[in-house]
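Thread title: Can someone regenerate the structure for this chain?

I was given the following input by a collaborator and told the matching structure tokens would be attached. They weren't. Posting the sequence so someone can regenerate them.
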Amino acid sequence: ILMPSANSSSNLANLERIDLKGEIFDSSAVLEKIINAKNDSNIKGVLFVVDSPGGAFAPSMELALAIKDLKIKKP
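Best answer:
Regenerated them for you:
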């Protein structure tokens, strides 16, 4: 387990954490985070923390496709 030291600065992190909690009915906020992480050259990887039972088909597919696209740019 890697833990940042007390002296380390959080702005040096290169891993973006995106939380997805609850039912998926509106994907806009999470999509924006995915797009921002994809376009940020300082971000080398994305950690998705998912606590969701699922949701509506269309927003779920939007998120799935955005994550698939992100994986191509940042494997």
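The chain is about 40% helix and 20% strand.
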